[in-house]
Structures are given as structure tokens and as C-alpha cells.
Design a protein that fits this description.
7 helices
Length: 183
Amino acid sequence: MKNVLIISGHPELRDNSFANKIILEDLESLLPTAAFDLLSDLYPDYRIDVEAEQKKLAAADIIVLQFPILWYSMPALLAKWMEDVFVHGFSHGATGRALTHKKLLLSFTTGAPASAYDAAFPVEAMAERFVRTAGLTGMDYVGFVYTGGVSYSLRADAEKRSEMAAAAHAHATRLFEKIQSLA
């Protein structure tokens, strides 16, 4: 198995997540040799240890970004991590080749149902900034795994909670299978 690094960009994974927490717990069981980088645990103050994060990325063959879509974008913590870590001379530029040929796989969730994304704004549009980042850094963008309709605000409803848990477990399985196909 190649070196897999799973980066959780959820800003409040332990206290304010439902689906992302389940996905990550399942992945820890399915991929016991993968490295897990839970940004909300490591950097609750948003002060990123750039050198440590760059070392993790350099050691990885497959990089998975796991996060919820918030306001049609990645969470601020994940954006800050990328801004600090993906710097000229490391990830891009004349000498920035640390990420070249690493596989970038996205794994994201939305609280809104999948039907909220249509031809006017397809869910694929959420990945575009990452496709461009992969191109700039020399990474191989290998797609995404997506699940909609898993809003933490529905967790008080027992029926919805059960449906969301099933969707999160199914998401983890699809993600595991995608990672396995890359290894």
C-alpha cells in the first residue's frame, strides 16, 4: 500500500461534526496504516506548523482532503492550512517540486441535499479550485467522493440521524475503494 495521508479540514471535528466524524472513524478502521492529520485537533488556534505539515505531505503518495463544504467553499481552517503550507519553493515555483506526481483526492460533504446542485451550479464546481491547485503543484488530481444532505443540524431527528449515519458509512466505503484503486 502506498503512503496515504488523510487531512481533515473540519474546523470542529470532535464537537460539531456528524458525517465527517463517522467517515474518518470508518477510514481509521479500513486504513490502519494511513496517516491522519486532524487539523482541528492540531491547530485550534489556526497557527500551522508549516515544517511538520510539509514533511507529512512529502512522505505521502496519496493525499486525501476530507471536509464539509461551508458556504460553497472549504472551511477556513483548511484554506489557512493550504495558504501556509503550499508555498512557493515547496509546492510550486522553479524549486517547488515536493508535491509532483502525488495523487490528490477530495472527499467532501454538504448539508444541502445533492439536488441543491444542478446544471447552474454543479457539485463539480466545488472541486475546481483543487483541480487548479493540483495543476500548479504538479499533483495528479484523481477526483472526489461526495455525499450531500448530511447536515449536523438534522442530528436531533432520530430518523434523519440514522439516514445520515448510513450515508456517511457508505461514503467511507466508497472513499476506501477509491483509495484502494490508487494504491
